[in-house]
Write a structure and sequence with these properties.
The protein is mainly α. It is 76% helix and 0% strand. Helix 2 packs parallel to helix 6, helix 4 crosses helix 5 and helix 5 crosses helix 6. The longest helix is centred in the middle third of the chain and has 47 residues.
Length: 272
């Protein structure tokens, strides 16, 4: 019987089990296994996705460390007392952390409101123009290489459940994951804490010592953490960890060295 089918019909019949599995997975609110613009399961390690907390933490620590070590070294280079270095370091930590937290909150809040509006508009279109939305979804799957018949069948299956239809249109048409819109407060807290940790690193030696000893200890400790942060970034870039760490160390060291030199220059000019 199968020998009488055209190649296109045979291919459609062979993919019917895939269609059934897709519909079943979507009804269970699991990520789709066929055509999807995002990464499939297993392609990324947990926490390494676009909204992964590990990546946000690494960049937050890096921002706090580079900015505050540069500030502290600049003030230390000016030859001021330990008290003024601590004051500048704490001020840099608090100003940067609150700025990062507030900025991240506003950014995430606006982004979430935009996404929620897009989802609301999509839900309205699904309710008012279901047939047009079904055709749009079928066209998306045809553009991915599926036969017109199979694309129409998939779109029809997905449109049966309004919740599944909204999730699918959000993913395929808008590029959104309704379950991962992000938390403004969570993003703000994460940015605040990670920046604070990074900014605290170069400040710690001045809490226990002063003078050249504290400056040297701060530079060494900051260099070690900079290298570690750079090496950790290789998780996302795929570069060799030692090279990535060395690059971050050189960039951060250059920034701190320049500000230290400027501080020394200002100190010499003021003394003369």
């Amino acid at each position: 019987m199968d020998g009488r089918l055209s190649p296109e019909d045979r291919r459609t019949k062979e993919q019917l089990p895939v269609l059934a599995a897709l519909a079943r997975r979507l009804r269970e609110r699991r990520p789709p296994t066929v055509p999807h613009p995002g990464p499939l399961a297993g392609e990324q390690a947990p926490g390494l996705g676009k909204s992964g907390t590990l990546r946000a933490a690494i960049f937050g620590v890096n921002d706090g460390l580079v900015s505050n070590v540069s500030l502290i070294m600049g003030v230390a280079g000016a030859g001021v007392s330990n008290r003024f270095i601590l004051l500048a370091g704490v001020a840099g930590l608090l100003a940067g952390a609150f700025s990062m937290g507030a900025g991240e909150y506003i950014s995430m809040r606006v982004q979430r409101e935009v996404f929620e509006r897009l989802l609301h508009l999509e839900a309205h279109e699904l309710a008012e123009m279901p047939e047009q939305e079904r055709r749009e979804l079928a066209e998306i799957y045809r553009s991915k290489g599926l036969s017109p018949e199979l694309a129409d069948r998939i779109a029809g299956e997905l449109m049966r459940d309004p919740r599944v239809a909204l999730e699918t249109h959000a993913r395929e048409e808008l590029g959104l994951d309704p379950g991962e819109l992000g938390s403004p407060w969570g993003a703000a807290a994460s940015s605040f804490l990670t920046f604070s940790f990074g900014a605290l690193v170069p400040l710690v030696p001045f809490l226990a010592s002063s003078g050249n000893v504290a400056v040297l200890a701060s530079a060494i400790l900051s260099g070690v953490v900079l290298f570690a942060v750079g090496a950790a970034m290789s998780l996302f870039t795929g570069r060799h960890a030692p090279l990535s760490g060395l690059r971050m160390l050189l960039v951060g060291g250059l920034a701190a060295g320049i500000t230290y030199g400027v501080g020394r220059l200002l100190h010499v000019n003021a003394a003369s």
